[in-house]
């Protein structure tokens, strides 16, 4: 999602960044979901898991596989995934509908267990939101969008201390963008300010 591309005006007259302008799946995700606040545990765990699986791959690949991911991971119910055993790991490794990466699969299961444990400290969603910065970027072009921040670095460190894996600063910044903690919609995009968290 980086590069110097300006906004693209779609056939509907709406301005979007280049990454969301061509592929209908990405366009729908951008128009309806990306950057909107996620405050529930299951929703946050799902997005954290998908961001980890996305590492090294395109987001379009993950979106296309999301229905299969949801089926394979019990709808991203942390309690259900936390109970997965070795037989489930083997089932997931044989599932062509998802990303069959052994380390990422183990991370998703371990992160579910860490999510359950985090309830004693207020829960995953509130924990992630506690790293909201005092300001948000105001990018004009995609190359002005940060890939990490002091807050995402601190969040990554804090999650690792709680037993989470595949939660590096770049992945956590992408999560913060996806769930509305920061607004990196380009200035002039029809979605800028849509979260209601930050003024446009």
Automatic annotation (TrEMBL):
Zn(2+) binds at residue 185. It comes from the Bacteria. This is 3-methyladenine-DNA glycosylase I. InterPro entries: Adenine_glyco (IPR005019), DNA-3mA_glycosylase (IPR052891), DNA_glycosylase (IPR011257). Keywords: Metal-binding, Zinc. GO terms for molecular function: DNA-3-methyladenine glycosylase activity; metal ion binding. Gene3D superfamilies: Hypothetical protein, domain 2. One of its GO terms (biological process) is base-excision repair. The gene is tag. SUPFAM superfamilies: DNA-glycosylase.
